[in-house]
Amino acid sequence: MDLIVDALSVKLGKRIVLHDASAHLRPGRVTAILGPNGAGKSTLVKAAAALVGRAGGCVRLDAQDVATMDPRVRARAIGYLPQDATVHWNIVARDVVALGRLPHLGAHAAPSPEDRAAVDRAMHDTETTHLADRPVGELSGGERARVLLARVFAGEPRWLLADEPLASLDPAHQIDLLARLRTYAAGGAGVAIVLHDLVQAQRAADDALLIAEGRVVAFGPVAEVMTADTLARVFGVRVAPLDDVSGLGEGGGTRRLLVPVGRIDAA
Ligand SMILES: Nc1ncnc2c1ncn2[C@@H]1O[C@H](COP(=O)(O)OP(=O)(O)OP(=O)(O)O)[C@@H](O)[C@H]1O
C-alpha cells in the first residue's frame, strides 16, 4: 500500500504552510521527513493522517483518498504518533497502549486474545512492560513517550507515521526505536518519521523527504538526497564525514555519515 502525497497544499490560519507537495512513499522502507523548524513537516504528517484539511491536492493510500476513508478503516491503516506527548487521562500505561486496538474492536466488543497479544508485544518491544500498572501521569517524559509509541505499535498499522519519536528518548532507546522501526518496515509496513537528528536519519532511513519553507526540496534515497551541498542549502550547516564502522552499512560494511559541525554563516 503506497502512500502518495499528490500536489498537497495546506492552509493554517491565513497562510499556506505547505505548497504543492508531492512524494510517493513506499512500504517496506523507512522515510525520514526532515527540514528546519517551521518547514511544514508536522503539517505534512498530519495531512497524511487526515488530521488537517487541505487547500489543494490530496494524500492517497494506493487509490484511496485518506480524507474520505471510513475513519475506522483509516485508523487501522495509519497509526499516527503526534509530536506532543501529552496524555489527558491519568489511566495506567497498559490501558493507554490498549487504546491502540480500538480500531480493531467491534462495537462494544471486549478485547480478544489477539488484541491482548498485540498489546503485550507492543509493550515488550518498547520496553514498557514494567510500566503497565503505572498511571501515565506519573511517568517520566521518556517513559510516557515509549508508552505512546507502544499504543501506535499495538494498532499494527500498515503505515506508521511518527512526529519526532526520538525527542525525549535517551540514546539507547533512540537506537532501539530506530531498529524497531526498521524491523517494522521490513515486515512490509510503511514507516515515515519526522526527525531533527540528521545522523540518526542517515543511519535509520532508506529515503529522505526534505522540506523547507513549506515546499518539498528533495525526495529520494538517503545517500542521494542527504549530500553536503543539500544539507548546507536546506539547513545552513557545514558537515564533516564520519565513518560508521558498526556494520550497518550496505553489505555490513563501513558507511560514511555526514555530521553537522557548524553553521555556514559562522565558518
Ligand atoms: N494552527 C496553526 N495556525 C497557523 N499557523 C500554523 C498552525 N500550526 C502551525 N502553523 C505554522 O505552519 C508552519 C509549519 O508548521 P509545522 O508544525 O508543520 O512545522 P515543522 O516543520 O513541523 O516545525 P518544527 O520542526 O518546528 O516542529 C509554521 O510556520 C507554523 O508556525
From TrEMBL:
Top-level lineage group: Bacteria
UniProt KW Transport keyword: yes
GO MF annotations in UniProt: ATP binding; ATP hydrolysis activity
Keywords: ATP-binding, Nucleotide-binding, Translocase, Transport
Keyword Transcription regulation tagged: no
Cited SMART domains: AAA (SM00382)
InterPro entries, per database record: AAA+_ATPase, ABC_transporter-like_ATP-bd, ABC_transporter-like_CS, P-loop_NTPase
Listed SUPFAM superfamilies: P-loop containing nucleoside triphosphate hydrolases (SSF52540)
Database matches in Pfam families: ABC_tran
All copies of domain ABC transporter, residue ranges: 3-238
Function: Part of the ABC transporter complex HmuTUV involved in hemin import. Responsible for energy coupling to the transport system.
Protein name (database record): Iron complex transport system ATP-binding protein
Lineage of the organism: Bacteria, Pseudomonadati, Pseudomonadota, Alphaproteobacteria, Sphingomonadales
